[in-house]
Amino acid sequence: MHIVVCIKQVPDSAQIRVHPVTNTIMRQGVPAIVNPYDLFSLEEALRLKDKFGGKVTMLCMGPPQAEDALRKCISFGADDAVLVTDRAFAGADTLATSYALAAGIAQIAREQAVDIVFTGKQTIDGDTAQVGPGIAKRMGLQLLTYVSRIVETDFENRSITVERRAEGGVQVLKTTLPCLITMLENTNELRFATLPAMIHAAGYPVRKWNKEQAGIEDVGKIGLKGSPTVVSKVFGPTPRSEKAEMLDLEISNLRDVSLNLLQKIFTRHPTLEADLLMKEPS
Amino acid sequence: MNAPATPATSAAPAKKPAGRAGRNLELPEHLKAYKGVWVFIEHERGHVHSVSWELLGEARKLADVLGSAVGVVVLGGPDEPLEKFAAEAFTYGADKAYIVHADVLQGYRNEPFTKGLTDLVNKYQPEILLLGATSMGRDLAGSVATTLLTGLTADCTELNIDPTSRALAATRPTFGGSLLCTIMTLAYRPQMATVRPRVLAMPQAQTGRGGEIVQETLEMVESSIATKLLDFIADANSNKINLPYADVIVSGGKGMKNPENFKHIFELARVLGGEVGATRPCVQAGWVEADRQVGQTGKTVRPKLYIAAGISGAIQHRVGMESSDVIVAINTDPNAPIFDFAHYGIVGNAMQVLPALTQAFAYHLSLRAKRVA
Q1: Are residues B184 and B308 in the same domain?
Q2: Using omega within 30 degrees of 0 as the cis cutoff, is the peptide bond preceding A178 cis?
Q3: Between chains, do B1 and A134 touch, taking CB under 8 Å as contact?
Q4: Is residue B252 part of a domain?
Q5: Per-residue pLDDT of chain A (282 residues; tens, 9 = 90+)
Q6: B199 and B255: one domain?
Q7: Is A272's CB within 8 Å of B305's CB?
Q8: A271 assigned to some structural domain
Q9: What is the span of the domain harbouring residue B360?
Q10: Structural domain contains residue A13
Q11: B326 touches chain A (CB under 8 A)
């Protein structure tokens, strides 16, 4: 079984700077990690490999330093890693990103056919959850998002059955391979990297592909040029004009402050008290 | 609140975006025919998801600015009450409903729904297409946008029409909510956006308001679809956490110090008949279930009463709850940002204040209940 897991390297902290001219995010100087949602997909891929044998190939699009994120995944047990990196990819939105990653997966599939592609549910920096569906659509893969459990994988008959988190319930879906899966968070626990694995990962030659090596045929479809969405402005949230009315604990006791607060709440929201009286304490 | 230093201010109108050479920012002639604002109506097991009505209220406003009509797309199985959903959509501001009944549309699956929605868009050419940022809406929106090769902006918190370009100006938090950005799709149609449940207010239904129903068909046979829906296991109502639509939420942050102290939160929520919420760090530390997370990467809520205990008020949390009617904050730090947008604040130890509040509410409500009885 050959599984490709797509990951993104994301900034770990909230220290963000924005390029004054292009309004794109400047990542320099911010500690970077593997997008946490991607690790649930990585663990699920490694479990399938444990069960069926085969190979897990990591794929990432990003700047050269994103190879650190790929090495991290090698230390957990991934077999190979490809970093698609080219200045031409800069400024990509989700549509352009799915094009570049789909091209990379197609290139990896030329070396060995791919059975399952995993992506994270979403990233913690972009939060769009669009790239996984985008890759699936571009490659004609069956799409299984928000998977909470892989029920059964029948590699002989090339089918897979999963539970998918939907609004108000769980869908049980069966589909054919190849497919693309995004795992829901907290559905598994990532294994530990052993010391020998970490040493192996530190010296692992991550393959770096530029746009030609990644099989990109049309540069109009990647990076800023290939992105239909345009960031017209980036700004901080507007401060509220009024600050909180503070209730001082030092001049009266806790009970009086609490009762005083209740009166203020019910005065501000006249129907709330009736609503609360309608409710049975759960 | 210390807003991060940014090059643009929120007050300034959206300027012509900075493009790079060779980037097409002009709408091509053939796409100018795209007119109207559409909402995809999400339904499951006989019920329309409220997010569809919330979107419809917003779609009506956008269409009024553009001077165009509001359309809804209702896809489903042969026996599903799609016409009833359409009639309800008319009361929330829709002018036209595009309905497709088909065997392959019984229960949500990506492939037939993507084709159903994409075909309608190609035929009727709406300029804006809105979907709920739910597990269905996000799954579908990403596939449809990629099929149509157009722009999609996820999880918007505000939708406007840019006065200069007449394009959809979709504002969303970025980087976990530390910043906001306004995104436009200038040279492609339709302009797509998703909005999470409870971000937009529920519109008032206008009873008696009608509209036009357009019945369409979907050319797709079951044998051509690889993915089969074997079963749908509905959540048991009793243990379901429904944060987005809760009237009262009591939330805890890292200031609660440890998971045991969350009992104070649960107790107050119990007395108020409300739900328990939490910040991302508490969920990441495993103190409470992920379904309780309020914020940009969790749930968006707009309860009547939101009590935040031991929560500093990071922007990632703020964007998920600032539309609450009344916000009460309890924090030991008088300079915590939460006091900048709460309505009432108490500087104090949540482990002492929460039990006192619980007692006060329990006392007050029991007194009132007696009087009502």
Answers
A1: no
A2: yes
A3: no
A4: yes
A5: 999 999 999 887 545 555 555 556 666 677 889 999 999 999 999 999 999 999 999 999 999 999 999 999 999 999 999 999 999 999 999 999 999 999 999 999 999 999 999 999 998 888 889 999 999 999 999 999 999 999 999 988 999 999 999 988 999 999 999 999 999 988 999 999 999 999 999 999 999 999 999 999 899 999 999 999 999 888 876 666 678 899 888 767 888 899 999 999 999 898 888 888 877 554
A6: no
A7: yes
A8: no
A9: 248-372
A10: yes
A11: yes
Pairwise CA distance, residues B35 & B37, whole Å: 7
Residue B2: inside a domain: no
User: Over the stretch B46-91, which tens digit does the pLDDT of each residue have?
Assistant: 999 999 999 999 999 999 999 999 999 999 999 999 999 999 999 9
The reply to whether B1 falls in a domain is no
| CATH number of the domain where residue A212 is located | 3.40.50.620
Q: Give me the phi and psi of B64, to 5 degrees please.
A: -65, -40
Residue B21 lies in a domain: no
Burial call A238-257: b when 16+ CB within 10 Å, e when fewer? eeeeeebeebebeeeebeeb
CATH of residue B129's domain is: 3.40.50.620
Provide the 3-class DSSP secondary structure of residue A47.
Answer: helix
Q: CATH number for the domain including B340?
A: 3.40.50.1220
Q: How many domains does chain B have?
A: 2
**Contact by Cβ (8 Å): B323, B350:** no
CB nearest to B325's CB, from A133, A220, A269: A269
Residues on chain A touching B18 (C-beta within 8 angstroms): 21-23
What is the SS3 string spanning B115-156? HHHHHHHHHHCCCEEEEECCHHHHHHHHHHHHHHCCCEEEEE
Nearest-Cα distance to chain A for B147, in Å, is 7
- CB-based contact A236 B185, cutoff 8 Å: no
Degrees, nearest 5: CA angle B194-B88-B95: 75
Of B22, B187, B364, the CB nearest to A262: B364
Judging contacts by C-beta atoms under 8 Å, the chain B residues touching residue A145 are 110, 135, 138-139
Q: Which of B224, B258, B278 is the last residue of a domain?
A: B224
Closest in A144, A254, A272 to B352, CB measured: A254
Among A39, A130, A260, pick the best mutation site for testing chain B contact (most B Cβ within 10 A).
A130
Q: Which residues in chain A have Cβ-Cβ distances shorter than 8 Å to B12?
A: 233
Domain count, chain A: 1
* Nearest-by-Cβ selection for A18 from B7, B134, B304: B7
Give the H or E element holding residue A250.
none
CB contact under 8 A, B136 and A227: no
Residue A29, burial from CB neighbour count under 10 angstroms (0-12, 13-18, 19+): exposed
> Are β-strands B228-234 and A169-176 bridged in parallel, bridged antiparallel, or unpaired?
antiparallel
A282 in any annotated domain: no
HEC string of A165-214 equals EECCEEEEEEEECCEEEEECCCCCCCCCCCHHHHHHHHCCCCEEECCCCC
Would you call B228 and A91 a contact, using CB atoms and an 8 Å cutoff? no
Residues B336, B262, single domain; the answer is: yes
Instruction: Note whether B255 and B148 are same-domain residues.
Output: no
Residue B34 and residue B173 in one domain: yes
Q: Residue A86 falls within a domain, yes or no?
A: yes
- Could you tell me if the ipTM is greater than 0.85? yes
Range of the domain at A39: 2-221
Q: What is the CA radius of gyration of chain A?
A: 24
Indicate if B313 and B186 belong to the same structural domain. Answer: no
